[in-house]
Amino acid sequence: MSVLGDGARHRPVRGAADALPQQAAEAGERPASGPIAVLPDASAGLRAAVESAGGRLAPLGDDTRGLVWTANDGAAELAAILRERPGIGWVQLPWAGVDAFAELLAGARGDGRTWTSGKGAYAQPVAEHALALALALLRELPRRAAASSWEPDERGRSLYGAEVVVLGAGGVAVELLRLLEPFRVRATVVRRRDGAVPGAARTMPVARLAEAARGAELLFVAAALTEDSRGIVDAEVLAALAPGAVVVNVGRGAVIDTTALVAALESGSLGGAGLDVTDPEPLPAGHPLWAFEQCLITPHVADTEEMTAPLYAERVAENVRAFLGDGAFVGRIDLEHGY
Fold first, then answer.
1. d(C-alpha 281, C-alpha 283), whole Å
2. Which of these is catalytic: 113, 191, 252, 315?
3. Which pLDDT tens digit goes with each residue over 109-129?
4. Among 42, 62, 177, 329, which residue has the least CB neighbours within 10 Å?
């Protein structure tokens, strides 16, 4: 599947984490430049991005030194290519989330290669979608859009001045905080690392997520899926939110415990959920989440092909320049933590 496909989640391929050849260069050093291959599908836009940045595009061969991977799966195939060509020093993956390559990346620790992804490249459209979901739910738009007669009521809330929690501190979270500035929200960012985040009134560690969520009216999930983050938004976190709070997930579906989410919606303690990602995904027909009027589900379209194609081309061009010694790599993957 092309990088410009639907972006659906794929489970890692078993056996993909077989040991990769050790590079001569130590981890963190700039890889030796040389021909760059774009696989498995090289669009005209990506070819132009490589060449406009000064890269030399060539078919995969023994002299290949850079590899731009354009599929959101195929970990086993990619691992085989890297085993056979130890000279490849830089690998670019397409999406912000790299959970489909989790086993491959775990096996790549210490291989001396530079690994980069699309993280941060699609922040603007994804943050925009998150804000749209939040506003739609606060303003009761799903229910009102389904009405077939004039039904006036006083339901609906404003985002202005709201207590907001953002889980994650990557590009999407930073862009979302920028979009929230005019609403004068009080935002708490929950993140793995210490450090302030522009636009956040405070930051807290992941271990204190339930504490951070206490009394919040809106929880945005914009975190990568790792073994540490799987199911982290659980019944305790959801119960800590203010009565009638709204949860929006534009990160990964499995960061939220779906069973707990359904229970919170059923009880009425949660006022709404805006989900661009779900667990399972795709969400099957008949799943309980489809039945809730206050659950607004979009089929992983926060960043569509039309939006992502030029953004990914720009990311590739940036990293081709870094590969050639002009600037730093953007979106480097933390192999120790899997994103």
1. 5
2. 252
3. 989 999 999 999 999 999 999
4. 62
